[in-house]
Write a structure and sequence with these properties.
The chain is an alpha/beta fold. The protein is built from 9 helices and 7 strands, in the order βαβαβαβαβαβααβαα.
Length: about 230
């Protein structure tokens, strides 16, 4: 769980996850927060890694994958600290790993009422279309941050998990696919933020459209990463 100044929501989110399944291990990567995110996460029962400064979601996630690999975890799932991802859906997202290396919790399916409009929606449709062709399977929500990875994908992420804009979603996914990882999606229900402010307004949505196209084009120029080649697929 990457977290940056999420003191208002992180404890409740952790509590919900542990209530959904007390066998889950929760790791919070405190991404240079200036509030009480770290303290509240520990009090709620999570293991916390405190980064010395804000590295962005990509840097926080790469830290989490290194932790998972060093401690022998074979499955991991990313959950946002703001409460938008319903912990009841974690098991469903993890179940996607039975048929793929990366499982995406997709918001634009038959489950839930999550809606996005305007330029941001156009960008998501375009990104999903291109990545679906690359993955040779239908994907509707390639920018979702609610996703799981098995040991094969974790190893690949350790070699390539960028910190640039949309790197944690588009770039990491494109390179993983090009490196041989299989991808699937499962329907999930997205909730409203439990605290804080939405990250997009109409102007930001237009900027998102332009930046997402550039992010995708940049990701497509990336070479496949080496671990899956050298390990023969692990």
């Amino acid at each position: 769980m990457p977290a940056w100044n999420e003191a208002a929501t992180v404890a409740d989110t952790i509590s919900e996850i542990l209530y959904a399944n007390n066998g889950y291990h929760v790791l919070v990567v405190n991404d240079g927060s200036t509030d009480s995110t770290s303290r509240r996460a520990r009090s709620a029962g999570a293991t916390v890694i405190d980064l010395p400064f804000n590295m962005g979601v990509g840097g926080a996630m790469r830290t989490g994958f290194k932790y998972a690999h060093r401690h022998g975890y074979s499955r991991v799932v990313q959950v946002d600290a703001d409460g938008q991802h319903d912990p009841k859906d974690i098991e469903a997202v993890l179940s996607g790993l039975e048929r793929a290396d990366i499982s995406i919790g997709a918001r634009f399916t038959e489950k839930g009422k999550y809606k996005v409009s305007g330029p941001r929606r156009l960008a998501m449709i375009f990104l999903a279309s291109v990545v679906s062709r690359l993955a040779r399977t239908r994907l509707s929500d390639v920018t979702s941050g609610f996703r799981a990875a098995n040991s094969r994908a974790i190893l690949q992420y350790l070699d390539h998990y960028p910190a640039e804009y949309l790197g944690d979603t588009i770039d990491s996914l494109v390179v993983a696919i090009k490196s041989g990882c299989r991808v699937t999606q499962v329907p999930v229900e997205m909730r409203v933020r439990q605290g804080g402010r939405p990250s997009h307004n109409p102007f930001q949505s237009a900027v998102y459209l332009l930046r997402s196209v550039f992010a995708l084009l940049f990701a497509l120029t990336r070479k496949r990463s080496s671990p899956l080649i050298s390990e023969g697929g692990l």
